Amino acid sequence: MTFDKILDNNTLWAVRYDGMADNALKTLFDQWNDPEWLVDFFLANITDLESYFKITDINQAIYDTIDDSQRMQCLILDLSPEANLDKIFRPLENSRTSEMLLGKEKARIKERPQHASWLRIYAIKLEPGCYIITGGAIKLTRTMQEREHTLKELNKMEQVRNYLISNQAIDADGFADFLSELS
């Protein structure tokens, strides 16, 4: 696993998993903007789409996903150097009230018409304002444990977290030291 710098100020990174052509963030945006991939995804998950979001029209789901993806891309990639990533990322567990070492975080669009956004970007928080994106998902259920594709994202977050801990990259300075050792 390697790490691609997303923002020049070293506050946002994305994991590039072994054997993958692109980092996790680029892969997400490619999928979320690919109508063919989205048709397959929503056909495979139509029951969740209908029961949780009350949407029966796959074309509407595809349109909403592409629209939200573009909004999310602007939110994540069009940041000024002074932007506060802590306003975008929140603790993965809604009940978590305190900071934790290499906390698991999520980003999503807060305000959207018709229904809540189902797009999630997952990250590990190195320290306030500094994140490593591990992946993301279209979350159509209440919890991530309910479906294989979201459970896979939980596992990826834990894998990256353990990798960082094992390499003493537990904050931004430790991560920078770790990256310098690799080059």
Task: Write up this protein.
It is a single chain. The chain is 42% helix and 19% strand. The chain is built from six helices and six strands. It has helices spanning 24-32, 35-44, 46-53, 58-77, 148-166, 172-182, and strands at 2-5, 12-16, 89-91, 103-107, 119-127, 130-138. It has a six-stranded mixed sheet with strand order 1-2-6-5-4-3, sandwiched between helices. Helix 2 (35-44) crosses helix 4. The two termini are 14 Å apart. The mean pLDDT is 92.
Précis, in short:
The chain is 42% helix and 19% strand. The protein is built from 6 helices and 6 strands.
Summarize the helices and strands and which ones pair or pack.
Layout (H helix, E strand, L loop, with lengths): L1 E4 L6 E5 L7 H9 L2 H10 L1 H8 L4 H20 L11 E3 L11 E5 L11 E9 L2 E9 L9 H19 L5 H11 L1
Parallel strand pairs: 2-6
Antiparallel strand pairs: 1-2, 3-4, 4-5, 5-6
Helix pairs in contact: 2-4
Question: Can you give keywords for this protein?
Answer:
183 residues; alpha+beta; 6-stranded mixed beta sheet; 6 helices; 6 strands; 42% helix; 19% strand; globular
Largest sheet: 6 strands, mixed
The helicity comes to: 40-55%
Spatial ordering of strands, largest sheet: 1-2-6-5-4-3
Question: What is the C-alpha radius of gyration, as a whole number of Å?
Answer: 16 Å
Q: What percent of residues are in strands?
A: 15-25%
Helix/strand structural class:
alpha+beta
Count of β-strands = 6
SSE order, one letter for each helix or strand: EEHHHHEEEEHH
| Overall average pLDDT | 92
Q: What is the 3D form?
A: globular
What's the end-to-end separation, in Å? 14 Å
Number of helices: 6
> Segments where pLDDT lies below 50 for 5+ residues?
none
